[in-house]
Amino acid sequence: MHLVQILLPRADNAGKPFAKQEFDRVKEELALRFDGVTAYLRAPAEGVWRQGADEIVIFEVMTHEVDLPDWQRRRSELERRFRQEQVVIRYLPMALV
Fold this sequence. Notes:
4 strands, Alpha-Beta Plaits, alpha+beta, single chain
């Protein structure tokens, strides 16, 4: 089993917040594809790096297999939709207890 996380900014590079519908769309797409999703939307995390900081939201799905080409296509689409140079999608092995 794997846990896949998608980190998305709450606002574009000019500081304009993305519409709630954009995040709802991501949530619905993931729920349909993976039979469930956890979305951390209300208490955004803060991403900090050398060039600045962003408030981010996190989506998580659990899956038995990680289809890397599918996730790479999904990442490219999210980069386009959220006008980002790079969207972080990461996966970790996990086990249920």
